[in-house]
Amino acid sequence: MSGGAPRFQQEPHPPPHQRPLADTNVQHLPLLEMLSNKVGKQLGHPTYSLTGWLVSKFFKWHNQILEENAVKLCNIQPNDTVLELGHGPGFGLQAAAQLLTGPEGKLLGVDYSQYMHEMASKRMKEQISRGKAVLYYSDVVAMPIEENTADKVFHCNCYYFWPDLKAGARAIHRVMKPGGIMVTALRLDSVKKVASKNMFSGESWRPEVYMEALQSSGFTDVRMENKREKLITFQAIFATAVK
Ligand SMILES: C[S@@+](CC[C@H](N)C(=O)[O-])C[C@H]1O[C@@H](n2cnc3c(N)ncnc32)[C@H](O)[C@@H]1O
Hints:
37% of the residues lie in helices and 23% in strands. By secondary structure, the chain is an alpha/beta fold.
């Protein structure tokens, strides 16, 4: 998405693998709760709307630095195949593309928001046209990527929205090469604040729940580390795919 004013229209069809969002009886909710519900849904699945556009601006302001750090922590090699899940506007894809300088280097992305898929596709149009990047409009659990494809997988602020973390972790494991590295970056303080406003369903935003799902899905050396970069503190979860 360039800086221009967005045209808001409904996504014409549900994305191919989209699950219906939980229905909320909005009539009985107080205004603030309704608003936080709306923002929570847009964070997890931005659509063509004013809130979706504002949320995309928030991703740049709050998350771009996190995305860039996740990329650094992947230790990307020039000929790697790298996959980002839930890439949103595409700042992490952009950072990863700069490191994939070898002839075999390839970048893949998956997002089930049509709005984010199109925004990132615009941002990455040069790499897509050269065949260096392929973006899929898909749910993580149904991504049309062959098994044993990715050397590195990363995602930021994404797993909290998955209704079944074990299914998500199994899907990641499937597409990774043996010994491949997965990195998840998050700002736990911010995530806790969002969770306290009931914007996530259940407890699956907790890193330990996701780490347990990774462990039971064929990952080893699963660990979370605290990191500091410039003015921000964040957490990185690492896992290695064993096959
Ligand atoms: C909070 S946004 C984060 C975007 C970006 N990674 C960042 O940190 O700014 C979550 C993104 O993950 C995508 N997403 C959430 N659940 C997904 C799923 N099950 N499959 C594919 N994409 C998903 C959403 O559409 C959205 O673009």
